[in-house]
Amino acid sequence: MPTPTPNDPNVPKLANFLCFAIYSANLAYGRAYKPILDELGLTYTQFIAIIALWEEDDQSVGSLGEKLFLESNTLTPILKKLEALGYVRRRRDPADERQVRVSLTPEGRKLREKALPMNLVAAAGLGEDFPVVQKAVVRLRENLLRAVRGQGAKAVEVADTE
């Protein structure tokens, strides 16, 4: 079998893989958020945990983990650090001692005042298309999760060459 050349149309191109476009966009978002997060003294994962608690305060660690797509063993150290920083409080649920609940402290709520003006919507350069793209990415995520639940992770992405 002959060795394919770089211009061979049968050789998949990295730029044609949707998974790479999303992965590299995620990295770009991380770079764009870095100065903001540095100013807040938070990592990205700590920041999204705080945002999820702004949306719904006083929730179980399990519920928070589901929203963030994080396992408990990953989320717990993040919450411990946020607790040490004074932004959240963890406590056993009195109704079910097996559950740990997490809630924002007044300092955690005050972070919103610092963080919300630091919005990257304009930096994304999508204008009116921003909500459309955001919804499409959410739909993509949900479709992939449904496919993985239904079939296992056997599918391999085929580059779209059109």
TrEMBL record:
Give the classification, highest ranks: Bacteria, Pseudomonadati, Pseudomonadota, Alphaproteobacteria, Hyphomicrobiales
* Name of this chain's protein: MarR family winged helix-turn-helix transcriptional regulator
Q: What is its main location?
A: cytoplasm
Write the record's keywords in alphabetical order, separated by commas.
Cytoplasm, DNA-binding, Transcription, Transcription regulation
Q: Which InterPro entries match?
A: ArsR-like_HTH, HTH_MarR-typ, MarR/SlyA-like, Transc_reg_Sar_Rot_HTH, WH-like_DNA-bd_sf, WH_DNA-bd_sf
Please verify whether the record's keywords include DNA-binding: yes
Could you confirm whether the keyword DNA-binding appears in this record? Answer: yes
- Gene3D superfamilies, A to Z: Winged helix-like DNA-binding domain superfamily/Winged helix DNA-binding domain
Identify the residues that the record assigns to the HTH marR-type domain, covering every copy.
15-146
Pfam families in the cross-refs: Staph_reg_Sar_Rot
Taxonomic superkingdom: Bacteria
Q: Which organism is it from?
A: Bosea vestrisii
Q: Where in the cell is it found?
A: Cytoplasm
